[in-house]
Amino acid sequence: MFYTNRLMLRNLDLKADHPTLIQWLNDQEIMEAMVADAVRPTSREGVVEFVQARAKHPGGLPFFAICERPTKISQPGRTFADGGDFFVTGDGAPRYPIIGLLNINNWRFSFTNRVAMLGIAFDGEHRGRKGYGAEVLSWACEYMFGHIGLHRCELEAHPENHRALQCYRKVGFRDEGTKREALWRDGRWHDTVLMAILEKDWRARTTAS
């Protein structure tokens, strides 16, 4: 697990996260924040494949479940009085409920160029209301540049998603251009904004602060 001031980032777990993910992966608003392709309904089997594929960290890059930081943190491998494990309680409820997802995407990853694509999504209750997005992204930048050794991180955003754009810019991502009519959604073409942050940009910000 990894921690910020208010959040915990952990691996996905099928038992703990399946009930929530089957709702999220069938929620149009959440899925539109996660994928650039057409949004499609997901079956129970599809959720299993989703979790299993990302829990293996394809390409060596991680996919995180975002949870609110618990006041008492349990250690993996310990014995739980309720008969559960680190991820679920004895009655099968998630011990640390998932509220969002963070994806350091390997489809743009290059070992030579050290570039990756970042994706982040929260459920409706926690989206854009508590500053969690900036908190997770700040942690992600330090993790990517300080631990994985990336040189550059990219993301794409919708021009009309002003709250998200403000969050990305607050962390230090810069606008690099507009991809014209790059996304087909709701019966029409949409532009997307390409944003990126370099390791030296992040270091300059953290040194200055």
Automatic annotation (TrEMBL):
Signal peptide: none annotated. Transmembrane segments: none annotated. Coiled coil: none annotated. Residues 34-200 form the N-acetyltransferase domain. It comes from the Eukaryota. InterPro entries: Acyl_CoA_acyltransferase, GNAT_dom. The keyword Acyltransferase applies. One of its GO terms (molecular function) is acyltransferase activity, transferring groups other than amino-acyl groups. Keywords: Acyltransferase, Transferase. PANTHER family: GNAT-FAMILY ACETYLTRANSFERASE, SPERMIDINE N(1)-ACETYLTRANSFERASE. This is Acyl-CoA N-acyltransferase.
